[in-house]
Every structure is written in C-alpha cells, then in structure tokens.
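Recap from last week: sequence in, structure out.
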Amino acid sequence: MKSHSIEPRTFGELRNSPWADSPLRGRTVRDEIRANLVIRLTSGEELFPGIVGYEDTILPQLVNALLARHHFILLGLRGQAKSRILRQMVSLLDERIPMVAGSEVNDDPFAPISKYARDRMAECGDATAIAWLQRSERYVEKLATPDVTIADIIGDVDPIKAARGGHLLSDELTMHFGLLPRANRGIFAINELPDLSGKVQVGLFNIMQEGDVQIKGYPVRLPLDVLLAFTANPEDYTARGKIITPLKDRIGSEVITHYPRSVQLGMEITAQEAWTKRDGPQIDVPDFILELVERVAFEAREDKRVDRRSGVSQRLPISVLESVISNAERRALGLHERRTVPRVSDVYAATPAITGKLELEYEGELQGGDTIARELIRRAAGRVLDERAGGADLGRIVTWFDQGGALKISGDERSEVALKGFGVVPGLLDVVSDVGLAPRGDAAFGVAACELVLEGLAAQKRISRSEELGYTRAKPERREPGYGKGGISFG
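Predicted structure tokens:
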C-alpha cells in the first residue's frame, strides 16, 4: 500500500484487494510491532534514533518486552528519556491500516467491535466507506493526574447523543468513548501511572485482561487491541503503593531506566539536545566547558543536599549549556565581537538554569539553591582540571597567590584584556598551552582555559575565590598592611 491512489475506499474494494490475503490483515497491534521489530533487528537498522547511553542496558530489555508482546512500564527518575522512547514506538507500527470510516474506535472492517461499525457494515455491505489510519494517528498519550476519571480513560454515557438519536441510555450508540477505546489498534501510553486513582487503575486492568468495562452501570464488551505502555517514578511505584496489585501483576515487563553512566555519554546527549547553533557571533565552545557543564549534573546527583528520590534531570546540563552560550553571546554582542568562547564565568552566570532543577533536602534549603549551585560548579571545575591537567606543575601559580598576589577579572571583559590580566600570574599561560587547553595566540580560548585552572585550584582549596576579591591565597588571614601588593583588577 505505497500509493494513496490505489488504496481501496470501500469494503468491497478492500475485500478484493491484496490486503484481504495479506499477512498484515488481522494482526494484533502487538503482533504487528513484534513483526516490524524483527525486520529492524534483522536489517541492523537503528531502533530508537537519538537515544544515547541505553544501547547495552535499557534497549535490550525493551526489545525483549516487545518481542514477548508485553505491556510494559518504564520505571525511572525524571529526565531519563522515558517519554521520548514511548513516542518513538510509533515507528514500529505499519505505515497505515484500513478502518471503517467514521468509527471512533478505529474498527477493523473485517472484525468491527463497535455497534456503530457493525450497524454500518450490515447496512452498507460492500459499499461501506473505508478510511486509512496513519501510524502517527495510532499513538495516544495521557499524563496521569489525580483528577483523571473513568470517563476520561474509558468513556461515559452522552445524554445529548441519546436524545438526538432517539436511543435508550443503555444503547451502546449513546456512549462517548474515552482515550483508551480511541487508541484501539494502536499504542496507549500513560505517563506517571501512580497518580491515577485506584478505580481508574481497576478499569485499566479489567480492559487488559478481559476486555469488559462498565459505563454508568451498563456492561459494554470492548475487546480492544492495544499495547499499553506506562511510565512511573520508582519512589511512587515501589514505596508508596500507588499502583494497585492486580494492575501491576498484568504489566508484563518492568524496564528500569537510568541517567548517563559516564560523563562522555552525558556530553553526547547534551550536545545533541541543546540549542547551540545561533545566528550572530561565532561561538566556539571548548571541550572542557562542555565537560564542566556535564559534571555539574554528575556532582548534583551525588550531593547529599539534593533530593535523590527526585533526581537531577538530564535537562539540567542541556539548559545550563544553552544559558552558558547565551551569556557568551550577550558579551560578544555588547563588545561588538564577531567571535566568542564561553568561559567558566559564563557557567556561573547560568546558575538560574541549575537552581530551578534541583529539589533540595532540608540542609540544602537552609543553605540556598544559589549557594549549592556555585559549589557544584566549583567542584565540577576541580574534576575537569584533574582530568585534563592532573599532571601539570601548578606550584608557581599557587606560590604567587600565597605570596600575596590577587587577581580579579570581570566576566564581561574583552578576551585580549582579560588574557593580559591572567598573564601576570607566573606560569599560568604556559600551563594552559602545555596541557592543550588552549592554543597559543588564541586569546578567547586562553581566557576560558585560565579561568578553568584557577577555578580548579579554588576547588582544591589551593587558592581562594570570592565575588568581592576575586582570586586570592587560600584561607587568607586577617589583612596586614601591604597585603595584596601585586593584586590586579581588570574590568
């Protein structure tokens, strides 16, 4: 059925077409997904494009669930690509399938389940109009909330429809079908399953097992053909008992998702998702800034002041990187520069993109989100410095600060001026060049690299940094007359 021009438009045409004898006819949606998945696996085609870091963990489990024709649940914290995976399931459906035109539940012309379709077929016979359902129309998603009702999911009696059609309220033709029947012959996904009330969950498992529902006390048999897919937070799913046992028992597979297992994988995801291609000044983002941004999320996931049950979404480094680039862009526009390189100071400017994504424990609330965000950035800078310049001799730099040197440079200073300021610190420019953080002669990269080295030293407590004084010696004692001679402030 590659061409719309030859698609049958009546049941008679469909019955006499290749579709009638095709193995595609009569397959359940789970058989259909399984068959298309087998073809993909055999050909080596990528199953879920854009899903990074799950190749050896989550995707094999999900594939097994689909091959077993299971309803399944993705169990994981926020920002672990659960919804994206569900939406990509659509690609495993056939390109299009026939249905009785006008049916609310996508009736198969060869096996109609609704009274409307049965009556239509009996009345019109071979002249019954046929429509073609696209794969994109066969995916229905619902975010579960406590106020979702049986009427929303299953359906309800429609008195207006009954009055207009002259039907009794017990007549199936008076029913207004909910989201689940409308997803017949497709995929029905529910995000945050535990938030559904118990009676709605009862309606779900009854559909899954027997296909029977009751709407306003009237029994209606709906042998729905649907793949059910759910997502949930593990805290809600396992500890609070919000999923009723019979429903949990009918979910065939439980797939537990996770955050990126390595910084490199996290960087790949962030680079893929973040909006980095901008009009205007050329923006060159150093690898060590990309790593620093990603390590902020890794540090947050390990910090005891951050609520681990809530998790730290992968959206955090994505938003931070976008904010970092925006701050560098703002500086370039203000200075009329055609090229800019994001710096560590730009990461600090992105703290609003961090604080809004952290759920803090009591201790964290006392300290404040902004304070914790800055600590996370500094710790991340220390890790990046260890990774990229761990063997470098930084003693001359530390000695200069220990002897009273101090340096404060504005984050909005021009690269050439800022690099000149960093140049007063003995050995700093040599270090960033020798370890490959910045090429000699590139002022913009040099400034970013110098900031990384000094931030890393501050994280290691070998020097100090404050908003008021800039970079100074570690734990400075009470100022004596003459302290800070040689201190330089730029901007």
